[in-house]
């Protein structure tokens, strides 16, 4: 995999899985639709089992762990073969655990001071969360001038209609979202519908050189 989570695809699906048994077919549908990077959030009891299952059975998927908020979760996620880590926010303790993990990570930020603090610590790639509530594209556009070295994966309140506005920004590498995973489709195990929605999301990078580079 590329060294950067931001360069895997224009959209990273954010997955909350009530049933780990659905992990493999769901991941296969997302990959078939052109979204290989999959963030499985640690919000459900079976999340680690889901990460482990995807890692073992879907070789074209790059599965990561989201909602990582403790050093213990960092260890558990890496043991489950998560290939990247995403946190909604960060502390120095959590940041050091993610750094020691040896896998790429995206610490979460929502303020300019947090971005500056991470840059001071050598981190240039971050999750911007909650994106829509924290200022959306206007906020990120404002950061690009004084802090051009910071790159973001905005997540939170982003859908198919708003994603292109984020992806057009020079400091945005990809966006995270769950609109391609509607609850009724997951509950019905309608993997064909999810694959189609994933294909629509993946096409957001079509015709854009930077997005084409992301899909290498």
UniProtKB/TrEMBL annotation:
Pathway terms, separated by semicolons: Carbohydrate acid metabolism; 2-dehydro-3-deoxy-D-gluconate degradation; D-glyceraldehyde 3-phosphate and pyruvate from 2-dehydro-3-deoxy-D-gluconate: step 2/2
EC class name: lyase
PROSITE patterns per UniProt: ALDOLASE_KDPG_KHG_1 (PS00159), ALDOLASE_KDPG_KHG_2 (PS00160)
Gene Ontology terms, MF aspect: 2-dehydro-3-deoxy-phosphogluconate aldolase activity
Family annotation (InterPro entries): Aldlse_KDPG_KHG, Aldolase_TIM, KDPG/KHG_AS_1, KDPG/KHG_AS_2
Reactions catalysed according to its record: 2-dehydro-3-deoxy-6-phospho-D-gluconate = D-glyceraldehyde 3-phosphate + pyruvate
SUPFAM superfamilies: Aldolase
Keywords carried by this UniProt record: Carbohydrate metabolism, Lyase, Schiff base
Domain of life: Bacteria
PANTHER family in alphabetical order: 2-DEHYDRO-3-DEOXY-6-PHOSPHOGALACTONATE ALDOLASE-RELATED (PTHR30246:SF1), 2-KETO-3-DEOXY-6-PHOSPHOGLUCONATE ALDOLASE (PTHR30246)
Subunit structure: Homotrimer.
NCBIfam families assigned: eda (TIGR01182), PRK05718.1 (NF004325)
Protein name: 2-dehydro-3-deoxy-phosphogluconate aldolase
Gene source species: Streptomyces spinoverrucosus
């Amino acid at each position: 995999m590329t060294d950067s989570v931001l360069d895997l695809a224009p959209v990273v699906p954010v997955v909350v899985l009530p049933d780990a048994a659905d992990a493999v077919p769901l991941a296969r549908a997302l990959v078939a639709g052109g979204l290989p990077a999959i963030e499985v959030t640690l919000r459900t009891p079976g999340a680690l089992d889901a990460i482990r299952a995807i890692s073992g059975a879907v070789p074209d998927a790059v599965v990561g762990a989201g909602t990582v908020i403790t050093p213990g979760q960092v260890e558990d996620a890496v043991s489950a073969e998560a290939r990247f880590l995403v946190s909604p926010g960060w502390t120095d303790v959590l940041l050091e655990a993610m750094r020691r993990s040896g896998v790429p990570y995206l610490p979460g930020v929502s303020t300019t001071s947090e971005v500056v603090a991470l840059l001071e610590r050598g981190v240039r790639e971050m999750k911007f969360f909650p994106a829509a509530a924290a200022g959306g594209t206007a906020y990120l556009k404002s950061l690009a001038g004084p802090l051009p070295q910071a790159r973001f994966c905005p997540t939170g309140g982003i859908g198919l209609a708003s994603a292109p506005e984020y992806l057009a920004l020079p400091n945005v590498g990809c966006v995270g979202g769950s609109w391609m995973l509607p609850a009724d489709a997951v509950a019905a195990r309608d993997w064909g519908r999810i694959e189609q929605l994933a294909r629509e999301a993946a096409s957001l990078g079509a015709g854009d050189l930077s997005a084409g580079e992301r899909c290498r």
